[in-house]
Amino acid sequence: MRIVILPALLAMLGAAASAQDAAQPAKSPYESVIGTVDKADTAAKALIIKPDKGDNTTVKWDDKTTFLRIPAGETDMKKAVPATAADVALGDRIVARVFTADPTGKPARTLYVTKQADIAQRLQSTEEEWKNATSGLVSSVDPAAHQIRFMAKVAGSPVPKEIVADIAGKVDYRRYDPDSGKYTEGTLATIKAGDVVRVLGQKSSDGSEIKVQSIGSGSFKTIGVQVKTIDTAAKEISGIEISSKKPITVALRSDTLLKKFSDVAAMTVARQLNPSYQQAGGRGSRGNGGAGGNAGGGYPGGGNPGGGNPGGGNPGGDPAAAGAGGGRGGGRGARNTDIGKLIEQQPSIELADLKPGDAIIVTGATGTDAAKLTATALVAGVEPILRAAPSNGADPLAGSWSTGGAGGGDN
Q1: Do the beta carbons of residue 302 and residue 402 sit within 8 Å?
Q2: Distance (Å, rounded) from C-alpha 17 to C-alpha 15?
Q3: Rounded to an integer, what is the distance from CA 141 to the centroid of its chain?
Q4: Quick check: 61 and 111 in contact, CB under 8 A?
Q5: Shortest CA distance to 261 belongs to which of 326, 346, 341?
Q6: What's the gap between Cα 309 and its chain centre?
Q7: Phi then psi for 80, rounded to 5 degrees?
Q8: Under DSSP, is residue 379 helix (H, G, I), strand (E, B) or coil?
Q9: Alpha-carbon dihedral 259, 263, 267, 269, rounded to 10 degrees
Q10: Cα radius of gyration (the chain)
Q11: What residues have CB less than 8 Å from 58, skipping those under 6 apart?
Q12: Alpha-carbon distances of 200 from 128, 195, 215, 263, rounded to whole Å
């Protein structure tokens, strides 16, 4: 009896296992390596790829590898056209389908190539498009009503205005990743109150509603920091956030903007934020009013935080209005100063130019670690500003700096 039953039982168990395996999707033997070509060795038939995250990796090819060229920004691989290994050069973007079991040893099955020149052209075109985006701070997100409400400065309004973003249709969501400095694919669920957004779409006649096509978002803030230590090798600053008195680590990227206010420029901003402010020891020097005008860039969210991603273009006002105004310490002319444009006009510095005890104002992105800020821009020489407007708290420039912020677009 055991001789008869055992084979039958094994057969039943085998059938059950086969049915279970059939119910589960088969795992693909391939995985994707995505990054930029750092080195091409045609003799060894190998590429050194710098991924968006992590260390460099090797991708090999052989005569059986298929090379395909795909336009910048295109996601439909069916639109790729035949290419060859000779078409691959430094700076090109690569999507390599490699064997999961041996990704660096076995030749890739398929190599999708996007040329660096195509990417640059696409970025320029997209950046021009994003210059027309509306940026601001999210006040509420209502998925059921298909709406995002945010506060933004608009032409003709001296104060931020609430904008309703209609997200009922197909929307391209992008989210800023502070680790890579790039915008990656996002979702509605990643957007929350307090985020900075830039929105592209069809505006209503009065500009109060936007039928959204694309939206870039990120968790950005502008804070005052008292510097404690500086690690130039690691590109990090340890300090104390002035408003909360909590420790903060400021990480700098290779594309972080570093500026220092001149004495006159610092007083111009200080008097704009607090017209009654007087510099200790006197009434302040006679300023020229800085760059006048505000062309809608006075809210966080303009500019390009880096990583090769198109941002919101020029955050500043009208250059033709530069020098308008005047008066003591910036005087009445300072009230019309575009702070973002004024910052652009200040001299650049290096991280090594800072020293412990300095006060800085930093705009940057936050990730999972609330005690770390990845800076898109940093300005020194800000002591008069922090003294003039201590009530601004966590945002020492009162939302008037737009050097860093959320943008959309492609990698």
Answers
A1: yes
A2: 5
A3: 21
A4: yes
A5: 346
A6: 7
A7: -70, 150
A8: strand
A9: -10
A10: 27
A11: 46, 47, 48, 49, 104
A12: 12, 16, 6, 38
How long a stretch of residues is the chain? 411
Alpha carbon distance 5, 8 (integer Å): 5
CA distance 408 to 411: 10
Do the strands 196-203 and 134-142 form a parallel or antiparallel pair, or are they unpaired?
antiparallel
Find the helix or strand (DSSP H, E) in which 193 lies: none
Which two structure tokens, joined as six digits, stand for 181?
A: 């400095």
pTM for the model: 0.58
The full DSSP string for 229-297 is: EEETTTTEEEEEETTT--EEEEEEEEEEEEEE--HHHHHHHHHHH-TT---TTSS--EE---B----S-
Residue 1, pLDDT > 90, answer no
Residue 378 CA to residue 392 CA, distance in Å, equals 18
Across the beta sheet with 30-41, the strand order is 57-60, 46-51, 30-41, 93-99, 110-114, 66-69, 81-82
CB-based contacts of 52: which residues, under 8 Å, 6+ apart? 34, 35, 180, 182, 411
Tokens found for residue 329: 């310490």
How do residues 199-250 score in pLDDT, each as one tens digit? 999 999 888 999 999 999 998 888 999 999 999 999 999 999 998 899 999 9
Distance between CA atoms of residues 301 and 407, nearest Å = 7
Q: Which helix (H) or strand (E) holds 363?
A: strand 359-366
Q: What percent of the chain has pLDDT over 90?
A: 49
Terminus-to-terminus CA distance in the chain, angstroms?
68
Rounded Cα gap, residues 249 and 254, in angstroms: 16
Query: Quick count: other Cβ atoms within 10 Å of Cβ 139?
Result: 14
Segment 300-347, tens digit of pLDDT: 233 333 333 333 332 232 222 222 233 333 333 445 677 888 888 999
| Beta pairing partners, 46 | 41, 60
Tell me how far apart the alpha carbons of residues 411 and 409 are, in angstroms, rounded to a whole number: 7
